[in-house]
Amino acid sequence: MENILAGRAHTFGDNINTDYIIAGKYTKTLDFTSLAEHVFEDIAPGFSKRVRPGDIVAAGRNFGCGSSREQAPIAIKYAGISAILAKSYSRIFFRNAINQGIPCFLCDTDGITQDDTVTVNIGQNFVELAEKRKRIPLEPLSPVMLDILREGGLVEYLKKNGKYILPR
Q: What is this structure's pTM?
C-alpha cells in the first residue's frame, strides 16, 4: 500500500449494505473477477464498466451493514477500488476490508461529490480535493492495521510475520 492514493470518487449514501455491494446470487464462486463485474450493480447499474483502477468509494454512514459476507470487500478490491471513505462502517465489514487489504477510512464525506478527484494522504491523515481546494481530516488507522494493509491483507501479513507483531 502506498502512502498516497488518488482516484476518481464514486459516491454512495447511508446504509449501503453488503447485498447492495454484491448480491448474494453472485457469491457462490471463487472467481473474484466475476464478483467485480457485479459490484454495486443493483444501486449503480454499469458501475463495473465505469470504475477504473485506483478509484475511491465515498459513502455516508453505516457502509457495509447487513451480512458479514467477505465477498463484499473482495468484490470492491477486484473492481480496482483503492480506498473507501465513509462516515461510519459496519464493524465486521471494516475488519473484513482491512483483512482483504482495502484501506477504509473514517472521515466527513459530505464535501465529496461524484467524479471528484480525490487524494488520500495516509501518512498525513487527510483527504485532498484539489479542485475544490479542500482538505478533510481522516481518522488515523492503528499501526497494526496499517501494517496489514502494507502487506496486502491479513493472510500476507501472517505469512510474513507468523503472528501479530504488536507496536512498541
A: 0.93
